[in-house]
Amino acid sequence: MNRREETKKIKIGNITIGGSNKVLIQSMCNIKTSNYLEVANQINELTALGVDIMRVSILDEEDAYSIHKIKELISIPLVCDIHFNYKFALICMDEGCDAIRINPGNIGKEENVIAVVNKAKEKHIPIRIGVNSGSLDTSIHDYSHLYSAKEMVKSAEKHVSILEKYDFKDIVISLKGSNVLETVEAYRLASKRFPHYPLHLGITEAGTKEISLIRSTAGLAPLLLEGIGDTIRISISGDPKDEVIAAKRLLHDVGLYPNYPTIVSCPTCGRTQVDVEALSRNVLNYLEKINKPIHVAVMGCVVNGPGEAKNADIGIAGGKHEWVIFKKDKIIKKVPEEEALQALIDEINKF
Q1: Which of 47, 57, 86, 144 has the most other CB atoms within 10 Å of its CB?
Q2: What is the secondary structure of 164-184 as a DSSP string?
Q3: DSSP 3-state assignment of 98?
Q4: Pairing relation of β-strands 231-232 and 262-265?
Q5: Closest-CA residue to 136 (of 122, 127, 148)
Q6: pTM, two decimal places
Q7: Rounded to an integer, what distance in angstroms lies between the CA atom of residue 268 and that of residue 278?
Q8: 41 HSE (CA, 13 A, CB side)
Q9: What is the CA radius of gyration of the chain?
Q10: How far apart, in whole angstroms, are the C-alpha atoms of residue 98 and residue 78?
Q11: Separation of alpha carbons 109 and 326, rounded Å
Q12: Where in 184-313 does DSSP place strands (E)?
């Protein structure tokens, strides 16, 4: 049994985090929360893409008092992200949020945390302790040097102990750093120190899309393969839709998102006489819309075609301005380049 299956099951709205080998996908709205109609529309758009949980930031009372309006318009759990002012957490819980994320390093005195805990117990709302490398508890890390994995875990430990002291156990923990190696080590340590609490994985400040995809995969894939992590967010400076798509692709490739298409395409070489990149992108866009668990190969030539792509359910290989379509290792038809996409889609739809 892996570690995911041994973590505590915690209800967040209408779903459960922990206690299984299912890893949930999270993202965060990039619209001010008080613009509740826009926020709800964004959440519903991401829900259609496959996000499981959404988080919104609470900057002021106007944001906090918008939560019930958003909840009326969405169907998935909503987490409120609280920094500095613990009173916003109290309002959000009264407004009907499904979970609270607090960073104990910046929420102030223990009395503030206690007030949040009491309200959470009253409302049966879980709390995510969000340790972030940029705002660690200053009694543990003074920022005169690079933070360490041990300091991140020690910060989490301090604040978990406060919640446990007041008999609060519905806890999810995250330890997000921008340094991949320290973050990976922090999660490994945390999985041993807090074996029963679900862990939310992520690399913070991961960067723009092209950087984040590499940095986040470098940090999250090893943990997921080790059985660590119950939810993930791939943080991208940009459109949240990209976060959800990237999370699905990563989880699929590590065997944790089975009902999803697989597409492979060759890197091309001097033998290639067709536009592999354009066809691959168009096929991927189609596959992700229909969300069919099928293995499709787009190959640049006959060397890479039925020979190297025998595991594909359906494939297409380029020739001289034409393509051949194959199933497993059997060629079934030849089509001109301009008809290739539609011909391949027709075969996909038959699968």
Answers
A1: 86
A2: HHTT---EEEEEE-SSHHHHH
A3: coil
A4: unpaired
A5: 148
A6: 0.92
A7: 12
A8: 7
A9: 23
A10: 5
A11: 65
A12: 199-201, 231-232, 262-265, 295-299
Q: Which amino acid is at 216?
A: S
Helical H segments across 166-233, by residue range: 180-193, 209-225
Amino acid of residue 196 = H
DSSP assignment letter at 8? P
E strands along the chain, which residues?
A: 10-12, 15-17, 24-28, 53-58, 78-82, 99-102, 127-132, 171-176, 199-201, 231-232, 262-265, 295-299, 314-318, 322-327, 330-336
CA-to-CA dists, residue 91 to 32, 96, 110, 116, 151, angstroms: 17, 9, 18, 10, 31
Strands 24-28, 15-17: pairing is: unpaired
Report DSSP state, residue 300.
S
- Single out the residue of 175, 180, 181, 226 nearest to residue 201, CA to CA: 175
Compute the distance between CA of residue 78 and CA of residue 67 in angstroms, rounded to an integer. 9
Let me know how long the chain is: 351
